[in-house]
Every structure is written in C-alpha cells, then in structure tokens.
Design goal:
- The structure is a single chain.
- The protein is of the alpha+beta class and 92 residues long.
- The chain has one domain: Ribosomal Protein L31e, Chain: W, CATH 3.10.440.10.
- The chain has 2 helices and 4 strands, in the order E-H-E-H-E-E.
- The chain is globular.
- The mean pLDDT is 92.
Length: 92
C-alpha cells in the first residue's frame, strides 16, 4: 500500500510593503498580522497557523518602525492536524 503525503512544504516571498502605509508606531505588529493573513489565504483549510520565533525576530530585528519590505518564508502544512507552520528557509 502506498501512503499519501500528509505534509507539504512551499517557499513564499511575502510582500510587506503595505505595512508602510500606516503609522510608524505599530508596523512590526501589522507585519506579523499580514504574514498570518497571507498564509491563511494560501491554506484555507488550516485551523491553526504557527509562526516560528525566527520569523518574528527577523521582522522585529530593526525595531517596530522599520520591518523588512519583503520576507522569504518556508511554509509546512500538515493535512492530518490541519496546522500550518511558518519558518525561515535554510541558507545554503
């Protein structure tokens, strides 16, 4: 018998330039929310989205006022548990 794949991995480049339209005082917070919304749009059946601490640290690395304009992430989706995990891709 063959087993079906229960998880999938995908790389995304998420544009965060929309975050810069608003106030400077909460851009990093809105960037994290935007990442969560982007992943939710891609994986509609997901019940839970987990953002890794390394992604959070990268967004907050230059402070609350200057998050990166775009971020490259690796997304893993577990179909059995319906959980999406967002990580930074490994450097080669």
């Amino acid at each position: 018998m063959s087993e079906r794949k229960s998880s999938s991995k995908t790389l995304f480049t998420i544009p965060l330039s929309r975050v810069y339209w608003g106030r400077r005082s909460n851009r990093a917070k809105r960037a994290i929310k935007l990442i969560r919304e982007f992943v939710k749009r891609q994986y509609k059946k997901a019940e839970k989205i987990i953002i890794d601490n390394s992604v959070n640290e990268l967004v907050w690395s230059r402070g609350i006022e200057k998050p990166p304009r775009r971020i490259r992430v690796k997304v893993e989706y577990d179909e059995k548990e319906k959980v999406v995990k967002v990580f930074l891709p490994e450097k080669k």
